[in-house]
Write a structure and sequence with these properties.
- The two termini are 12 Å apart.
- This protein has a seven-stranded mixed sheet, with helices on one face.
- 32% of the residues lie in helices and 23% in strands.
- Helix 4 links the parallel strand 11 and strand 12.
- It is an alpha/beta fold.
- It contains eight helices and twelve strands.
Length: 295
Amino acid sequence: MTQIEEVAAGVYAYLQPPGGWWVNNTGFLVDHGGVVSIDACGTERRTRAYLDAISSVSRAPVRTLINTHHHGDHTFGNYLFTEATIIGQDNIRDQILNFGLPQVDWYWTEVDWGDIELAPPFVTFAERMTLYLDGLQCDIRYAGGAAHTNNDSYVWLPEQSVLFAGDLVFNGGTPFLLMGSISGAIRAVESLRELGPRTVVPGHGQICGPEVFDAVLGYVRFVQGHAVAAREAGLSPLEAARQIDLGPYSELLDSERLVGNLHRAYADLDGASVDLFAALADMVAFNGGKLRTDA
């Protein structure tokens, strides 16, 4: 059941629990002349429902859409924001265009995507930019390097101490770093913690406070440590994942992401690239079947 929560005056989080594969959180900021949306959703149906939710709060048009990174759960619905300027970090455009439209899927359970059209950002920035809404300062900042992806940004509202973290932060779900960097994710999350936010809207999961940073960092360092030991033992990422006791992380949603994270950790250690399709196939093997999505 989707939820709208006003986390500060004129600042709303739109939550899609529990936040598994292809089911993300978004947010929007309202002023007298228009709305700024932080991300779209992954399917036509979900994005239309999100736009209806915005309309239930404000009849003003969505004038600006910020993409926190290129993944389809945050960008496939861009094309429905017909009056919006779409903004993203410099690397997002190429990543969206290279990824393309959803295809017949060998990795996830069936999804009704709708009539998706690609609509990448047409205003991009390198490091940061700032928007103002009725005096509200909205900072959009690049994570500084590869983390969840190579184009992650977050939205920071300093006066309200509210952070829209994108997929740099998962709350209750397993972080996913296959297309990013283990060490880069650690640096990015540590930098988010330094902001000192009171309220964090994660890319997936429930709204939380700064305690979420320790939870994310704990998991990523857990993967990093196991990757070093498993690689030295000559285990493949899939073999390693089957031997690892997740312990305190066993209840996180989508635990099969461990396999993809190990693929990334091995590649980081070797200074090599990742075979994304091999990693996804290993995740399916670990899961015992296609990865479950409720998108």
